[in-house]
Structures are given as structure tokens and as C-alpha cells.
């Protein structure tokens, strides 16, 4: 309640939308934990002991309208699809990029495939060098 009074009586400052917006925002932050796994693009990242995987929902995208490229350690995804409605058809484009740690993952074995509108990109981990045990001699 104290926060409510503070928000309603505070003087306006640059970038502030309104006291009501601040109250609603404070309410959301107090009762709902932020969910970092949600994405408006339906992109999921998963990291396991064996590999790094990315799944991207791309409904209506055909293989020939999809381009996945690797430059240095950045993966670029470009996709196009046509949407037909009562008012006509239009073309939508999708572009995203993400970095993959080139020392931890074997980028030369990066693979991508699309099935039923789901693009799956997978990069296996690089093999870790085995630790060499050195015998210590006593003189």
C-alpha cells in the first residue's frame, strides 16, 4: 500500500509512462516471477553434455525458403513464407542469429534439419583433451 501511495504522488520523470502503469508493473513483478524461457519467436535453446541444440518453430516454411549459415562462431537463420488470407497474400521473413562457443563446440559438425515446421540445429561438443599425469622423480 505504501508503494501505491508513492507511485500516485511521485512527480513525473522522463521516460515514465504513468503512475497507473508503474502500479501494475510493480504488482506483476511482486506476484509473477520473470520467465526467461519464454520467447515471442518460439525459440528453445538446450545444452547437454554431448551437444548444443536450438529449436525454432517456423510453420509454413519450406526447405527451399530456409537458409542456415555459419560465419566465424555465429549461426544465421533466414526464412520466408507466404501467408494467404481473404484480403490477399503476403510474404513474411524471419531472421535470427546466435553465437556458439567455438572452443567448446565442434562447429565443423554443425547440423540443421526441418521437419513439420520445426527447425532443429545441433552442434556437438568438442572432445576434451585428456589430462596427462606426469611422473615426478626423486633425486
Features:
four-stranded antiparallel beta sheet; alpha+beta; 139 residues; three-stranded antiparallel beta sheet; 2 helices; Immunoglobulin-like; rod-shaped; 7 strands; 2 domains
Gist?
This protein is an alpha+beta fold and 139 residues long. It has helices spanning 2-9, 19-31, and strands at residues 43-47, 51-57, 66-71, 74-85, 88-99, 111-115, 118-124.
Structural summary, described in words:
By secondary structure, the protein is α+β, with helices and mostly antiparallel strands. It has helices at residues 2-9, 19-31; strands at 43-47, 51-57, 66-71, 74-85, 88-99, 111-115, 118-124. The protein starts with a helix and ends in a 15-residue tail after the last strand. The chain is rod-shaped. The protein has two helices and seven strands, in the order H-H-E-E-E-E-E-E-E. Helix 1 packs antiparallel against helix 2.
